[in-house]
Automatic annotation (TrEMBL):
Residues 36-295 form the Sulfotransferase domain. Keywords: Transferase. InterPro entries: P-loop_NTPase, Sulfotransferase_dom. It is an enzyme of class 2 (transferase). It comes from Gossypium laxum. Its EC number is 2.8.2.-. The keyword Transferase applies. One of its GO terms (molecular function) is sulfotransferase activity. Pfam families: Sulfotransfer_1. This is Sulfotransferase. Gene3D superfamilies: P-loop containing nucleotide triphosphate hydrolases. PANTHER family: SULFOTRANSFERASE SULT.
Length: 299
């Protein structure tokens, strides 16, 4: 079996079974030393990671390449912004980060819950950009993604089975609500370190959120850039419609063995209504209410 296949099986089985041990990866990740200037894109899977990677990459490095040579035209967002855990440190305690992070400051990503982040990320002045999404859409996106992966060694999960697991918080990277609330609370306590975004807000008004993102990253758009339409250019290149049509995203395969097409499906808000039964919706809405409680976070 080649490395990509092993990776893919590992990713898929982690989605299926949260009991699988993460110990080895955590041990390896301890070797990661965050720098004060690092930017970490952090998400729960299927909440808009691909989009956020593209937006962060393009905003942060916009002056480091000619516009018509934006690497997003040639590489997928997941090739440009690599995952710490199931990509860089999956088998290697000392990946060559200098080689991986071509541009400065370093831009990396993770799906780990806030509580499980390497301490150097929390203790340094590095910044975290987090995105979450309405759990109903996130769940449908994840379920569709697993189906698409179609790993031969595992039975595909039916919607009912997947729903049951999700409802009971059984998913890789921990229960969705704990994951999101961990970052939410940390961002409330330290808004200069963690920018908390919602997929739906970006869909509604990408322009102002992109400006806000650039400001947070310490690279605000200048008046000249705004006049020249740089913000709109970034919006366009990172849009679902554009990313989906880039050759590598149509045909390429991620280092984990997952086809890039798996990362761009519909890109819509409210797609859950095409799949979930009224009973499922009622249960999930009750759960959302219960879990969000007095946190101040709403979906
Ligand atoms: P759907 O499955 O609902 O279409 P992640 O990147 O965290 O894996 O999340 C994937 C979800 O984000 C998918 O949602 C995918 O279609 C959507 N997506 C990917 N690229 C996007 C983009 N540029 N703009 C908006 N949504 C995007």
């Amino acid at each position: 079996m080649d490395t990509a296949k092993i990776c893919k099986a590992e990713v898929v089985s982690k989605f299926h079974d949260v009991e699988e041990s993460w110990d080895d990866e955590f041990k390896r990740l301890k070797h990661f030393q965050a720098c004060d200037s690092d930017i970490i894109v952090s998400t729960f899977p299927k909440c808009g990671t691909t989009w956020l990677k593209a937006l962060t990459f393009s905003s942060l490095y916009r002056n480091q390449f000619a516009w018509d040579k934006n690497p997003l035209l040639t590489f997928g967002p997941h090739q440009l912004v690599r995952f710490l855990e199931y990509d860089l440190y999956l088998y290697n305690p000392f990946p060559d980060l200098q080689n991986v992070c071509v541009y400065q400051p370093r831009l990396l990503s993770t799906h780990l819950p806030y509580a499980s982040l390497p301490t150097s990320i929390k203790d340094s002045n590095s910044k975290i950009v987090f995105i979450c999404r309405n759990p109903l859409d996130m769940f449908i996106s994840l379920w569709s993604f697993l189906y698409k992966l179609g790993d031969e060694s595992l039975e595909p999960l039916s919607l009912d089975e997947a729903f049951d697991k999700f409802y009971h918080g059984i998913y890789a990277y921990g229960p969705f609500f704990d994951h999101v609330l961990g970052y939410w609370k940390a961002s409330q306590e330290n808004p200069n370190k963690i920018l908390f975004l919602k997929y739906e807000d970006l869909k509604e008004d990408i322009n102002s959120h992109l400006k806000n993102l650039a400001m947070f990253l310490g690279v605000p758009f200048t008046d000249d850039e705004e006049k020249q339409g740089v913000v709109e250019e970034i919006e366009k290149i990172c849009s679902f419609e554009n990313l989906k049509e880039v050759e590598v995203n149509k045909k390429g395969v991620h280092i984990s063995g997952i086809p890039h097409t798996g990362f761009c499906r519909k890109g819509k808000v409210g797609d859950w209504s095409n799949y979930l039964t009224p009973f499922m919706v009622e249960r999930l809405e009750k759960l959302i209410q219960e879990k969000m409680d007095s946190s101040g976070l709403t979906f």
